[in-house]
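Quick one: structure for this chain?
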Amino acid sequence: MKFLDMILKNKKTDEFSSKKHLERVIAITNQKGGVGKSTTAVNVSAYLSSYGYRTLLIDLDPQSNSTSGLGKNPMDVKQSIYDILIHDSEPDEIILDTSYKNLKILPSSIQLAGAEVELVLSLKREFRLKEAVSKIEKDYDFILIDCPPALGLLTINALTAAKEVIIPIQCEYYALEGLGQLLSTINLVKKNLNDKLKIKGAIMTMYDPRIKLAGQVIEEVRNYFSEKVYKTVIPRNVRLSEAPSYGKPIMEYDPDCKGAEAYSNFTKEVIDNG
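Got it. Here's what it folds into:
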């Protein structure tokens, strides 16, 4: 039995060793609000950490949903991503541990709401986040950035710092509204600020099979993005909607619900699509 335990222990160590130093930096963005950006950021981060990947979630949204979604009260946060962008604070001084092994968060706060205006006159304003990420990216396998629902300087900072982009798209009528503008912004950032940036894919969220239009939207998005649509579709799920109010990712709140199964599968796609 001890010999078997030793083999299994060594196997796990080898598997984890093969995962080290991935240094994948992923921006989760869509300028439309309510499409599941924070839900995706929180749950993918949690599942990545549960699979043994060293993961950091950067909450770049002034609404602080990812911060509260991992059990941190934004009102209790003394320093946040705001201090990095505006006051050149060191990321290691602000990054917080979470309740989950391998998962840390760089929190947001209400101060971030004014950062857009304050950044306007800053030198190298588009590179503030990139400079911070460059100091810590070797410490993590995955860094996920939860972007605000806008195409302002905060999102530009995220796209400049990231290597990959994932776009959550809600399965509703206005799903493609503004998508052309988002893609144009991504292309401009790639051309002028970050030539390493790649769109990894679109993830369809809030799917309700009872609504005929939802299936039509998925088909339309797949025609629009061709092969860059993830196979997993995130369903509209009550338990998934409840989890943030308890400050828990779905893998802890209700690991057996359909939403949990979907985000587990999606996270595996993200890993395989590296």
